[in-house]
């Protein structure tokens, strides 16, 4: 398959399960690993074109497993996370679509939250974003419209990072039309997809968190 020149998958240090949806998402991608995120490369059967980070979370055996991958080391005391550095490198290489693999789970909740916030910021700049753990997926929702192809009866939520105005959700068990969601409201938590779900928003910042393998909404 021809590799996309504008889609980059960033391998991050959180948990990652190899699923069919994950494989489909990254099928024509290029790869950059951020520090310990390199451990996912073998499971995915890929060789990143660059490995960045301070390497403080990289075990010795992993460090020797990819000798041919160019490394770009940074000091531990730096102003950006390894993941943000990896994204910057991808953008410098022409990335338009960014998949943050290993972004949603793991021991560091602070990193997972930062990945979500950073993804929303990048979406506002026009980048096509997907965050995934393999079992769970997240897509930023900013002013405009998106459509997610989700299995019928799978769960999704739309937590807002601000007040949301003009929120519309179509083809879901609990649809909304031109809805005003106050900041901090739980109204948009635990909805159920009927298939392709359409979202639109007039103003605000949110994230669509989907669980495509969770059919407990049946």
Automatic annotation (TrEMBL):
What would you give as a GO molecular function for this chain, any one?
kinase activity
Q: What are the alphabetically sorted keywords of the record?
A: ATP-binding, Kinase, Nucleotide-binding, Transferase
State the EC number(s).
Answer: 2.7.6.2
**CDD domains attached here?**
TPK
Q: Which GO terms describe its biological process?
A: thiamine diphosphate biosynthetic process; thiamine metabolic process
Thiamin pyrophosphokinase thiamin-binding domain mapped to chain residues: 144-207
Task: Please give the InterPro entries that the UniProt record associates with this protein.
Answer: Thi_PPkinase, Thiamin_PyroPKinase_B1-bd, TPK, TPK_catalytic, TPK_catalytic_sf
Enzyme class, spelled out: transferase
Classify the source by domain of life: Bacteria
What is the name of the protein in this document? Thiamine diphosphokinase
Protein source organism: Rhizobium favelukesii
């Amino acid at each position: 398959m021809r590799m996309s020149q504008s889609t980059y998958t960033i391998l991050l240090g959180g948990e990652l399960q190899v699923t069919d949806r994950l494989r489909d998402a990254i099928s024509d991608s290029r790869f950059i690993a951020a520090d310990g995120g390199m451990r996912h490369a073998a499971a995915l059967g890929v060789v990143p074109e660059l490995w960045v980070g301070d390497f403080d979370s990289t075990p010795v055996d992993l460090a020797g497993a990819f000798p041919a991958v160019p490394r770009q080391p940074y000091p531990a005391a730096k102003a950006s996370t390894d993941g943000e550095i990896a994204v910057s490198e991808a953008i410098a290489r022409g990335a338009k679509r960014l998949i943050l693999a290993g972004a949603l789970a793991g021991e560091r909740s602070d990193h997972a939250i930062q990945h979500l916030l950073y993804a929303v910021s990048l979406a506002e700049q026009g980048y096509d974003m997907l965050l995934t753990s393999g079992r769970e997926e997240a897509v930023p929702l900013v002013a405009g419209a998106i459509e997610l192809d989700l299995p019928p009866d799978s769960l999704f939520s739309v937590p807002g990072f601000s007040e949301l105005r003009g929120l519309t959700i179509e083809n879901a068990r609990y649809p909304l039309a031109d809805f005003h969601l106050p900041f901090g409201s739980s109204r948009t938590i635990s909805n159920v997809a009927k298939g392709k779900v359409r979202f639109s928003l007039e103003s605000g910042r949110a994230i669509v968190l989907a669980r495509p393998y969770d059919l407990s909404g049946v």
